[in-house]
Amino acid sequence: MASASLQFFAFILALFGAFGDIAATLLPNWKVNADVGSNIITAITQMQGLWMDCTWYSTGMFSCTLKYSILSLPVYIQAARTTMVLSCILSAFGICITTVGMKCTKLGGDTDSKNHASFAGGVCFILAGISGLVPTCWYTREIISNFLDQTIPESSKHEPGGAVYTGFISAGFLLIAGVIFCSSCFKRQQAAWIYPPKQHHFPATEQESNAGYNLKDYV
User: Fold this and answer.
1) Would residue 37 count as lying in a domain?
2) Do 94 and 14 contact (CB within 8 A), yes or no?
3) Which InterPro entries does the entry link to (predicted)?
């Protein structure tokens, strides 16, 4: 029962991680630059994401521009696009597989098949967490290095936005869920190896007595 509740908790974490991955991939605020200027009325907030750049004006106007050209983008943005989409796909596969392999569901067949499915889903979650953690770390490194560069003007410097933090938290949820699923299956297999099922052996004297009883009956 404890293993089933732990798997259910890991499944909830994986759901939060998958939805967070999708949100972080689509949000435009991977890096933010707030330029107040000389007047608060003309203040603008510039946000840059993986797929679009948005500008929010203090007057209430909001405009976004899609990034159509892939080759003109920096390498870290291209890598972030690829790995974040891969993370979303792997997390979706992990949710589908672990739904079959969880102990609290009636899908997946016998216990061994469920354990294998849960382990495969846990591996998908771990790979999805790594795929989501790498681009967020790389993107954050580029933001910090540009922010500390003295040759770059202040108007071109940015800070990490909410999408980066969402990606970090989602990757952590997916990693924790994957480790829980893999470790729960490993413990069950290890327990089966250490404590094999007992086989009932009848003593030889009992078998001989039964044989003698049968012969006497025939005589």
Assistant:
1) no
2) yes
3) Claudin (IPR006187), Claudin_CS (IPR017974), PMP22/EMP/MP20/Claudin (IPR004031)
Residue 135 to residue 83: CA distance in whole angstroms: 7
What is the per-residue burial (b if ≥16 Cβ within 10 Å, else e) of 70-88?
A: eeeeeeebeebbebbebbb
Which range marks the domain in which residue 144 is found?
Answer: 4-27+71-194
Radius of gyration in angstroms for the set of CA atoms belonging to the chain, rounded to a whole number: 29
Q: Is 0.90 topped by the overall pTM?
A: no
CA pair distance 158, 46, nearest whole angstrom: 9
Query: Would you say how long the chain is, in residues?
Result: 219
Token output for 41: 């009325």
H-assigned helices in 102-152: 111-148
- For 176-198, what is each residue's pLDDT tens digit? 999 999 887 765 544 444 444 55
DSSP3 helix / strand / coil % (the chain, rounded to 5): 65, 10, 25
- On whether residue 42 sits in a domain, the answer given is no
Encode pLDDT of 34-92 as tens digits.
Answer: 665 555 555 678 888 999 988 887 777 888 888 888 888 889 999 999 999 999 999 99
User: Tokens in use for 7?
Assistant: 């798997």
- Tokens for 61, please give them: 């106007």
In contact, 98 and 117? CB cutoff 8 Å: yes
The domain that holds 150 is classified in CATH as 1.20.140.150
Reference 91, options 170, 180, 179; nearest CA is: 170
Short-list 205, 103, 118, 125, CA closest to 171: 125
